[in-house]
Amino acid sequence: MRKIIIDTDTASDDAVAIIMALRAKNIHVEAITTVAGNVPIDVATRNALISIEMANTYAPPVYVGSDKPLKRDLFTSTSFHGSDGMGDMDLPIPKNVPMKEYAIDKLIELIDKFPYQIELIAIGPLTNIALATQKAPNTMRKLKKLFIMGGNGLGPGNITDYAEFNFYADAEAAQIVLEENLNPFILGWDVSLNDSYVNETDIDFMTNSSTVSNFCVRSNQSIIEFNQREFNKTGFVLPDPALLAVAIDDKLIEDSIKTYSAIVTNGERYGQLIVDFDKTPNSTLCKKMSTIKFKEMLFNLTK
C-alpha cells in the first residue's frame, strides 16, 4: 500500500482532497500536517479534523505545523473561502484533536522510518516542507515523491497577475524546496483552472448524490458566490483535489514537461513561478490533465 502524507492549509478544496484521499483504495494516509495559509493554523487544523470525520473511513493523526510564513506576515484567503475556510457552514467542533508532536519533526520522523516510501502531497504553502528541508536535508531526500499544488504554471496567477496563492503566501519557502532538488511534480493554477472546474451540472449532481458530495459543494459555497458575483459564472475550481487525483493515478496526466523551476522572492512579481527550459531540470510541470477522468474520480470517491 502506498504511504501518503498530506500537508495542508485546510480550506474548501483541501477538504475535498482529504476526503478523496481517505476514500481511495490504493493509498494510505499516514499523517496529515497542517500549515497556515488559506486560514490561520488553528482553523486549518480544525478543518482537517472535520474533513477526516466527513470521509468516515479511518483517522490518520493530524500534526500542527508552522503558524506563519518564513519571512513575511501571514496572508490568508478567508475573503475567498469564507471566514472559517469552509464556506461559512458553521460546522460543529470535531471530536478528535491534533497530536502533540510538531508537524515538522513528525515529517522527518516518518520519512526516516519509511525511507523512499513516503509520498508527500503538498496542497498549501510550502513552509513546513522548507523547514523540514532546512533541518534534515538528507532525510527529505529520502522521499519517494513530492507532489506540489502551487504556482501559476504556464499562465497568469490568481492572487496577482504573476503569482498563485500557495507560492505567494510563502515564496521563500517554495524557493528553498525547489533549490533542494527533490524533483517535485508541480500542478499549477493554470491546469487546475482549465481542467478541474466544477460546473453547474456537476454541482447539481453532487448536491443530490450523497451527504459527502453535498458537503464538498457546501464547503465551496463562498467560492461559488464569489465566481457568480465577480465573473457571472456558476461553479468552482478544485486545484488541490486535482493534484491529489493525479497523485493517485498518473493516467490522469495528459501532458507534462521536465523543467528548471524557481520562485521570485522580491518585487512586483513576488511568488511567480519561473520556468527555464535551458537549465538542468529540477521538477516536472503538469501541462494538462484529463477533466473527464478527474470528475469520474471525484464523483466516485465522494458518492
Number of domains: 1
Biggest sheet overview: 9 strands, mixed
Please give the CATH class. Answer: Alpha Beta
Outline the low-pLDDT stretches: none
Structural class: alpha/beta
What fold name stands as the CATH topology?
A: Inosine-uridine Nucleoside N-ribohydrolase, Chain A
Strand content: 15-25%
Written as H for each helix and E for each strand, in order along the chain, the element string is EHEHEHHEHHEHHEHEHHHEHEEEH
In CATH, the architecture is Alpha-Beta Complex
Number of strands: 11
What does this structure look like?
There is one protein chain. By secondary structure, this protein is α/β, with parallel strands linked by helices. The protein has a single domain, classed as Ribonucleoside hydrolase-like (Inosine-uridine Nucleoside N-ribohydrolase, Chain A). The chain is 42% helix and 19% strand. It is built from 14 helices and eleven strands. Strands 3-2-1-4-5-6-11-9-10 form a nine-stranded mixed beta sheet, sandwiched between helices. The protein has a two-stranded antiparallel sheet with strand order 7-8. Strand 2, helix 2 and strand 3 form a beta-alpha-beta unit. Helix 1 packs parallel to helix 13. The longest helix has 15 residues. It is globular. The protein starts with a strand and ends with a helix. The model has no long low-confidence stretch (mean pLDDT 96).
